[in-house]
């Protein structure tokens, strides 16, 4: 079945530094990928929609200069948290849309735990 | 606008007993409905979806869900719960038409299956 891989699964970084999270669709091409953030005991919060070859669409309240998204190819989207702060510590999840003859299904990555110290 | 409600933060059930995790939705037109499961420290895994056809949808790990249009519900069920089913379950909905494929998720329901 379709697989979406996220890397790294866990990362610890110092305040003020930047960290990049990769989201790859391993056996299908994804023109659209999504980035979510999940706080403890909260639902997923959509941060942005990543479209291959064009700028990402950010949800209201999400700082585009802080959360840089690049969807350079049909199998890779990256989320870069710039100048990270402890409040950016969270679980980040990506998903990718697979377009098949039977319809569209969204597959999720394993998620990435970011801890900013 | 589309929305999803999962009225229970937590569901407790004994192993071997049937389980139900509730979900109601609000959407314009006919909905696409999904259930996902999240195990601790893991990403979401797709369980099942309803697009059209039979109201009873069967998915992974023995789970099924019943689409009820009159009650705008899509409850997740399993006839006999396993301890390994303990996880966080998310219901999601999206509108079928238009260019957006972004689902709206419920808050999640923690399922705890006791031995």
Topology, element by element:
The complex is a heterodimer of chains A (117) and B (115).
Chain A: E1 4-7, E2 10-13, E3 19-25, E4 32-38, E5 44-51, E6 57-58, E7 67-73, E8 76-81, E9 90-100, E10 103-108, E11 112-116
Parallel strand pairs in A: 2-11
Antiparallel strand pairs in A: 1-3, 3-8, 4-5, 4-9, 5-6, 7-8, 9-10, 9-11
Chain B: E1 3-5, E2 10-14, E3 19-21, E4 24-26, E5 32-38, E6 44-50, E7 56-58, E8 64-68, E9 73-78, E10 87-94, E11 104-105, E12 109-114
Parallel strand pairs in B: 2-12
Antiparallel strand pairs in B: 1-4, 3-9, 5-6, 5-10, 7-8, 8-9, 10-11, 10-12
Q: Your description of this structure?
A:
The complex is a heterodimer of chains A (117) and B (115). Chain A is mainly beta and 117 residues long. In chain A, 0% of the residues lie in helices and 57% in strands. Chain A is built from no helices and 11 strands. In chain A, strands 2, 4, 5, 6, 9, 10 and 11 form a 7-stranded mixed β-sheet that branches. In chain A, strands 1-3-8-7 form a 4-stranded antiparallel β-sheet, with no helix packed on it. Chain B is mainly β. In chain B, a hairpin with a 4-residue loop joins β8 (64-68) and β9. Classes of the chains: A mainly beta (117), B mainly beta (115). Chains A and B meet through β5, β9 and β10 of A and β6 of B.
Q: Low-confidence stretches of chain A at least 5 residues in length (pLDDT < 50)?
A: none
**N-to-C series of helices and strands of chain A:** EEEEEEEEEEE
The count of β-strands of chain B is: 12
How would you describe the oligomerization state of the chains in this entry? heterodimer
Largest sheet of chain A: 7 strands, mixed
Residue-averaged pLDDT of chain A: 88
How far apart the termini of chain A lie comes to 37 Å
Report the structural category of chain B: mainly beta
Please report the number of helical segments of chain A.
Answer: 0
User: How many angstroms separate the termini of chain B?
Assistant: 41 Å
Fraction of residues of chain B in helices? under 10%
User: What order do the helices and strands of chain B follow?
Assistant: EEEEEEEEEEEE
Radius of gyration of chain A: 14 Å
- What is the residue-averaged pLDDT of chain B? 89
Helical content of chain A stands at under 10%
Which two chains share the most extensive interface?
Answer: A-B, 23 and 19 residues
